[in-house]
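Two quick folds needed for the group meeting slides. Do the first one here.
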Amino acid sequence: MSVRVLLDTDIGTDVDDCLAIAFMLGSGEFTFEGITCVYGDVALRARMVRKLLELRGIEGVPIRLGARKPLLGLRDVYWEGHEGQGLIDEEPGEPFSNEYAADFIIRTIMENPGEIHLLAIGPLTNVALAMIKEPQLASSLRHLTIMGGVVRDYDSLDLPVAEHNIRCDPEAAHIVLSSGAPITLVPLDVTTKCSIRTVDSARLRAIGTPFHTAVAEQVDRYPRFARQGFTSLHDPLAAAIILQPDLVELTPVHIEVELAGRVTAGQTVAWVPSENHPENARIALRVDAGRAERYIIDRLMR
């Protein structure tokens, strides 16, 4: 099976975007139609993407810069400050295309109706802008998989009320989730149950290629991993279920984003679909964590 995929990413300090790209490059079933970067210093993010592709020996994948700020500009951009350390050189290298990410997303999908799987693993600003500009975009997608959101059932009240990708631009998330696109949502409820550990990073480094060494370096440098010896496979799990949907249990839901709550802005609220609240997504609420971890780590080692 070959999946034509367009990846929208906020690759940076949290190593899960890097691991998602490494997983996809190690899988062989993905054909990258392009990679777009969103949120904050998108040029720095794009340099990280380009370096990973170069280390893997991949040429010709279009990389585009997208929105730096949330859709309405109402929230400060969260910038942790470790982005790119240990991966990219001081020199910025060749300039990137002037084509804006949202325009690239529109062009790629509308020229290939029903063929492109869009994988969004960052704030949804680029995707929302594309949907606003091209009303037929949602119906022209093969599928849209989003790493984002959190439901928090009775045994996961330790999770945050709002997940990072949605909280960074809830207005954009609202536009995307209400677009009518065929959507699979992969939230913290399942991604936090899958981890990469110190032993896995050591195995990656031991492979010895420049690519695997660079990925292992990014894992080891991630502050959360350095503190606790493991970190969650958020974005890699979203990529993995494109190929192996039975890694998770998908539930049809009607889901909306809280936009104005004092303590809940960015919260994803899901309920059973009904006539008044029709299904607008399938959400992963259960995961075969051990199998998912083995599947992802195996692809990272290739």
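Then this one, please, same format:
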Amino acid sequence: MSTEDTTAEEDNVSICANCGKGEEESDKLKACTACKLVKYCSRECQIAHRPQHKKECRKRAAELHDIELFKQPPPEEECPICFLQLPTLHTGWVYMSCCGKEICSGCAHAPLFDNQGNKVDNTKCAFCRTPAPTSEEELIEREWKRAEDGDSQAIYNLGYFYNEGFYGLRQDYTKALELLHRAGNLGSTEAYKFIGFAYLQGRGVEVDKKKANHYNELAAIGGDSEARHNLGTMEGEAGNHDRAMKHYMIAARSGNTVSLKTIKQMYSNGYVTKEDYTKALQSYQTYLGEVKSKQRDEAAAADEENRYY
């Protein structure tokens, strides 16, 4: 059933599925929130009709869930300086606690110049020119200030810091999860992924694979390629290779190198076709072309050199 067919079907349903009352005989009918296929005039009618509707409802709800789950998410936002798409990998961008901007590594590491063309202090924010924090206390103070303004990335950062006990904060799993849930509700896919990890590993909560899967799905739908890869891994371990491949394909299109390598391995093992692997490779290369720049390559090379010092 196509989306158009479903919409048409919903529009044509103008009677209660249980008692037959029409719109003119009752208050506004409400559709079943799970499947959207039928409508009811009251909660009592919905409960009464549930036994005969349950099987069809669950089937359609699962279909709607998969439609949402396997959508290719929108691309990352653009760097506010070079206007190129931000890389999905964390090493490809930097969060600035002074102004709340996410700046690509190329712009963050590029030389800064004043209006006369003279080089200026490169430790200042490349966007707002605020000097970098000089202490852990100043960094945390900036993060809290951004968090108070509803900045989801700052709230996620604080949750992560509390979880790990970083930057002078006492390790506190309860406080961390509180912040991570708040960040997730504000749109942070990283927060949902981290909550999924907490449920998978039992960090601050009881191990619950069902909840871990739920939060990974929320993160993946929001565009987190690592959470998407995690879902592919779970499906592959369960023997659901077709569903695993769908997840890996979406992750590869979003620049996830591990997913691309996994698809290659699946091809070697006979689980996917050569055409599938070729399509994944082409999608991955398209992503690389969208995020590539000379400045970003130079920044990546500098980081690689600095690892050995």
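Slide caption for protein two: The chain has four domains: 3-64, 75-132, 135-222, 223-288.
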